[in-house]
Amino acid sequence: SIVQVLENEFRKTTILQGKKVLITAGPTRENIDPVRYFTNPSTGRMGFALARQASLMGAEVTLITGPVDLETPGGVKRIDITTAEDMYQAVLKEYPQQDIVIKSAAVADYKPKVTYEQKMKKSSGEYAVEMERTKDILKELGRQKEHQYLIGFAAETNDLESYGRQKLEKKNLDAIVINNVAEEGSGFGHDTNASLMIFRTGKENTYPLMSKDDLARNILEESVHDLKGESS
Amino acid sequence: SIVQVLENEFRKTTILQGKKVLITAGPTRENIDPVRYFTNPSTGRMGFALARQASLMGAEVTLITGPVDLETPGGVKRIDITTAEDMYQAVLKEYPQQDIVIKSAAVADYKPKVTYEQKMKKSSGEYAVEMERTKDILKELGRQKEHQYLIGFAAETNDLESYGRQKLEKKNLDAIVINNVAEEGSGFGHDTNASLMIFRTGKENTYPLMSKDDLARNILEESVHDLKGESS
After folding, report:
1. More confident of the two residues B231 and A7
2. What ipTM does this complex have?
3. Where does A2-112+131-228 sit in CATH, by number?
4. For residues B64 and B24, what is the distance between their CA atoms, to the nearest angstrom?
5. Topology of the domain comprising B2-114+129-223
6. Which residues are B54's β-sheet partners?
């Protein structure tokens, strides 16, 4: 709409000028056969909000996304993937040249051991799908980290702070955003999030329920300040 | 758009006036835990096209749909469901008072035996998801059929005719529409379908690649003629 165009114009800044920002978004699909798969309820809205706002802040944005029903924000380079393995390959390829990397995708942590090429025919009985772990993308990004500022996401119902700190340490992150999915209107499928952002430096920011675009701006602004060593 | 509004006005007919039409659409989701589920790539477009066109033809339309990202067509009563069991309950409740019933939903034929209330925590190992059959909705509709004209759908890559005839008999259908998913642009996620429609009477119609709205009109018109015992 015209209001949105004007709003976007008003919000344009240059604080991410010259920075390369990589954002992952959406779910992945792990197929059992051509017409059956495992997935999760991620709509990609948080990642697309991050991509849109980073672009408005002047960044060169790459958005790697699973199957979602969203339009690519203006000026953003979009790479579509389907499986966790696709996501791993795409992210690791883009990683070396990035300044800020935000992993907001809900990547499947398990996949079927076997994917059948043909549609399985129904049988009357029961059966079991053997599952195995996918590669841990965030952990690998933490391991290979050089100059990149690396931000992870988590969705929790309780103990946000202690779980967040653990994950930040374990994955060698610079910051983590923990969505409080116990709060009404927060998380999967909503346009709003209530979150806690924890930084490697020890700082914590609590964000009440706000639009994913507003949360995205907060996350990006904090990252830039933190990168520059400013207090905010 | 204005073009669509005019097109819809132009297409309004009364051939389904006074008829109650029930249409099912979209995929179902079968949860393993609150953030993991089995599903399929159905977008619901075929079912929504059927609902829209049936409404334009004057029918009183009920649309029972799984999770899809589509707007409800004007004048259509929409019921949202998530699982195959939800779909079964909703469809069987609406069934007795319907004249034409079209099952275009892609209902899961298997579901996890157990759905966990809490998000499963990752473990390093492998595991197996025990699956069991869901209820066969179409078969039950065929069994309980009285005055209803019952149409099923199938998606096949080969032997469309013989597979279609088998399913028509087994489920006690009046007609079946078999999408040729081997043809480029046909089936899941496309705006077009190439199909074969087989009738209990023995008649067969082959439809080349066309929009799902055009196919929907053909299916509905044929059903009305068939109901009235007209040849067409």
Report:
1. A7
2. 0.84
3. 3.40.50.10300
4. 5
5. Rossmann fold (3.40.50)
6. none
